């Protein structure tokens, strides 16, 4: 008996390995169930030979792609936290020292940066695809709410990470983001309470750091878990399709996704690295930095509306998606087959994109 088999036999007598593997597979490693009444090797073999369901085919793999990108962020961020010091005096110097002097520091820093941006972009495309295919229709209301919550938590995760380097860009954007978020009812109050936002103090940096590396990743991980459980329960559509066996078909698709995602982010990290500017200086006039792309529309509203109008409209825009399953009660068919509804959605997204581009080019 090989050493691996001896270890498995030892653990199997003391731990329910099948349940442990079932928990791991809940995140999309493979979607087929793992039997609990068989030895672990036999259970894995049976699961690998089970035909995959319809939601594991292209382009339905955006879900596992978002989780892979989240893992990229977690792994690269964990490497960075060993060297980062969350204080006004040391944040900038520790960031620069990590990039310049630590092994692979430049690559890890930029890989973390582009992984987070790519994750946000893919999440937005995934939400748009859900809207197009009416994935939020009953009984998938909870499925849609979880997907939107994941997006909001990832946005907050990105925001808490912006201020950490404490260079000119991060310091300036921290104040701009505070100006955008603070007037929004409830959301602005929570932002100020949890992060003590409004000034770049040691307290603000420390809270942002704790939320960024501990609290938010935990909640995001839990939301991903519930989200994938919902996928396994309901699927992404009412139709059902039994595809190829999990191994090798779906297994190699996952490997291809991981490889392509890594290659693309690696390329972006080396061709368009995030430049660290000089340390942030309070009251200096910074004019060359733009707010993150997902806040451009809100920044436009903030600068062109009075505060009361901006607060009400922004709050409605953020809360509205939670109620979308009960507002849009049209049949669960692709939007292209419903001209009026399709036009309304296209008009809304066109306005959002157009205004965001105007704000970016301003």
Structural features, described:
This protein is mainly α. The protein is 66% helix and 0% strand. The chain is built from 15 helices and no strands. The protein has helices at residues 3-12, 17-25, 40-48, 62-81, 91-101, 105-132, 141-162, 168-181, 187-195, 202-234, 246-271, 296-304, 307-319, 324-327, 339-361. Helix 4 crosses helix 11 and helix 12 crosses helix 15 (339-361).
Q: For the residues shown, what is the average pLDDT?
A: 85
Shape: globular
Beta-strand fraction estimate:
under 5%
List unreliable stretches of 5+ residues.
Answer: none
| SS class | mainly alpha
End-to-end C-alpha gap? 69 Å
Oligomer: single chain
Main β-sheet description: none
Order of helices and strands: HHHHHHHHHHHHHHH
Number of helices: 15
Helix content: 55-70%
Radius of gyration: 23 Å
Number of strand segments = 0
Write the layout of secondary structure elements.
Layout: H1 3-12, H2 17-25, H3 40-48, H4 62-81, H5 91-101, H6 105-132, H7 141-162, H8 168-181, H9 187-195, H10 202-234, H11 246-271, H12 296-304, H13 307-319, H14 324-327, H15 339-361
Helix pairs in contact: 4-6, 4-10, 4-11, 5-6, 6-7, 6-11, 7-10, 12-15
Summarize the structure.
With 362 residues, the protein is an all-alpha fold.
């Amino acid at each position: 008996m090989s050493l691996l088999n001896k270890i498995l036999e030892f653990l199997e007598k003391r731990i329910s390995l099948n349940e442990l593997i079932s928990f791991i597979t809940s995140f999309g490693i493979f979607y087929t169930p793992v039997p609990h009444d068989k030895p672990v090797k036999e259970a894995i073999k049976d699961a690998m030979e089970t035909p995959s369901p319809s939601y594991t085919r292209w382009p339905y793999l955006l879900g596992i792609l978002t989780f892979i990108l989240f893992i990229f962020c977690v792994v690269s961020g964990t490497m960075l936290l060993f060297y980062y010091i969350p204080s006004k005096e040391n944040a900038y110097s520790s960031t620069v020292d990590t990039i310049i002097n630590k092994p692979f520091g430049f690559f890890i820093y930029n890989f973390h940066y582009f992984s987070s941006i790519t994750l946000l972009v893919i999440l937005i495309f995934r939400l748009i695809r859900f809207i197009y295919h009416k994935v939020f229709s009953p009984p998938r209301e909870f499925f849609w709410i979880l997907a939107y919550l994941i997006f909001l938590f990832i946005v907050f995760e990105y925001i808490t990470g912006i201020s950490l380097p404490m260079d000119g860009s991060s310091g300036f954007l921290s104040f701009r983001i505070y100006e955008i978020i603070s007037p929004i009812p409830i959301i602005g109050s929570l932002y100020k309470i949890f992060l003590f936002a409004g000034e770049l103090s040691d307290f603000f940096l420390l809270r942002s750091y704790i939320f960024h590396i501990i609290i938010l990743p935990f909640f995001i991980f839990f939301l991903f878990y519930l989200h994938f459980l919902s996928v396994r329960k309901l699927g992404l559509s009412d139709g059902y399709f039994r595809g190829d066996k999990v191994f090798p078909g779906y297994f190699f698709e996952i490997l291809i996704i991981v490889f392509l995602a890594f290659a693309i982010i690696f390329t972006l990290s080396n061709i368009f690295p995030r430049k660290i500017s000089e340390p942030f200086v309070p009251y200096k006039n910074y004019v060359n930095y733009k707010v993150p792309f997902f806040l451009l529309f809100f920044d436009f509203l903030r600068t062109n509306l009075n505060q009361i109008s901006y607060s009400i409209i922004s709050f409605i825009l953020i809360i509205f998606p939670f109620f979308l399953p009960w507002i849009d009660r049209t049949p669960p068919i692709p939007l292209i087959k419903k001209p009026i509804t399709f036009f309304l959605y296209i008009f809304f997204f066109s306005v959002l994109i157009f205004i965001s581009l105007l704000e970016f080019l301003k």
